Amino acid sequence: MNKIVLTFVAFLLSMSLSAQYKPWTSAKQPLKEIKALKKQIKKPEFRKVDYLITDFGAVGDGKTKNTEAFKKAIEKCSAEGGGRVVVPNGVFLTGAIYLKSNVNLHLSDGSTILFSQDSKDYPIVLTRWEGMECMNYSSLIYAYEEENIAITGKGTLDGNSDLDNWWFWCGATKYGYNTSRPGRQNPARAKLHEYMANRTPARERIFGDGWYLRPNFVQPYKSKNFYMADVLVKNSPMWNLNPVLCENVLIERVKVISHGPNNDGFDPEACKNVWIKDSYFDTGDDCIAIKSGRDEDGRDIGKPAENHIIENCEMKDGHGGVVIGSEIAGGAKNIYAIGNVMDSKNLDRALRIKTSSSRGGTIENVFFYNTKVGAYKEAAVRFNMHYEKPGNHIPTIRNIWVENLTVDKGGKYAVFSDAYESSPVTDFTMINAKMVGVQIPYKVDYLKNVTLKNVTVNGQPLTELKP
């Protein structure tokens, strides 16, 4: 009897969620939503007091390890009500930096924070690795359940990674791996998948030295009011900017140049109210990839990526410009990409939504507007429901709106779709799109409710998308 009741409740919930779903009928609707969302996302304010790290013993010679000086300055600043912890001109070597509430880590012109290549300088903390919770190395800059934190200034954050440090742990020979030295993440990655599938508590999934799971660069975790502006970020061990389960995230005028393995530029994960603007990405993986957790972890935590604005950014090399997935089991909704520019023969796709039936979840309300693309390799718009291994959780992709898209030197396809017959990409709209240099107009399988208005590929009207 209980099973019948639970099934009926699930059915009613499903019907209720379906009833709430309403696809856009005009660009005016998402544009209005963007305007309202911008009013909600606020820059944190800080007390106008500076704490110079050199007053706490820091030496900017690129050789002296300054981990303790950063710790003392940040703790004192936070304890006294907050302010700026200032990094002056110089190269300051350090291990992991922990950001505390009400602290703005400010990098002055000509300053560099150079991170240690010694894994022992990164304590074990609760983190996420490829969308899975675990105990692993602290990200290079980390915060947990903090509020009002920032990284600002025109200095440089250098992750100090290369073919001999961090990168080769990915196990690929092109990134320096060879059998003559220890260090390969594959066994640990498999073990973490096993922990997740068995729902082992996150704090019992312990990694660190001997496991070779690379840390991410900047990871505020379960934090509120995170701001980042003007800095250059380069040479990350893995993902660059990775806020997790955060709310009210504002990133502006940041430049990310990092060509290592899995060197995604900006990966907000299961975050709410995120705005990134006027930033630059030249990366070894996705430029911007919106996430909400992998498989069981993403579904069990159940926090979607929600209310994200990507505005006036420039993307060069990368697997994708604006990407949703693949660690997207918690779902994603209300993703607005407006006024972005992309151009690189090494950029695979402009807009990519990638998921799988091992993920599940619903990706909906994606607005891709006023986008200028020079070159790309594979597809201007790419839907993929068969990314990585299959499972028993068929995903949903719906209400995808592309308007005012220009492509000057297209790649293989204009539109490329790989979906499930039982779950077609639904309510896909493309308006005012002009794409030239494309080899094949489209390759699609399961699409439903497609609207094409004033779309041309190589000068010819595109009026339908059929398998």
TrEMBL record:
GO biological process per UniProt: carbohydrate metabolic process
Q: Which UniProt keywords apply?
A: Glycosidase, Hydrolase, Signal
Q: Which ranges of the sequence are coiled-coil?
A: none
Q: Does the keyword Repeat apply?
A: no
Q: What domain of life?
A: Bacteria
Keyword Hydrolase belongs to the record: yes
Annotated Pfam families: Glyco_hydro_28, Pect-lyase_RHGA_epim
InterPro entries listed in its UniProt record: GH28_Enzymes, Glyco_hydro_28, PbH1, Pectin_lyas_fold, Pectin_lyase_fold/virulence, RHGA/B-epi-like_pectate_lyase
> Under the GO molecular function aspect, what terms does this record hold?
polygalacturonase activity
Quote the SUPFAM superfamilies the UniProt record gives. Answer: Pectin lyase-like (SSF51126)
**Entry-linked PANTHER family:** PECTIN LYASE-RELATED (PTHR31339), PLASMIN AND FIBRONECTIN-BINDING PROTEIN A (PTHR31339:SF9)
Family (UniProt): Belongs to the glycosyl hydrolase 28 family.
State the name under which the record lists this protein.
Answer: Glycoside hydrolase
The organism named in the record is: Chryseobacterium formosense
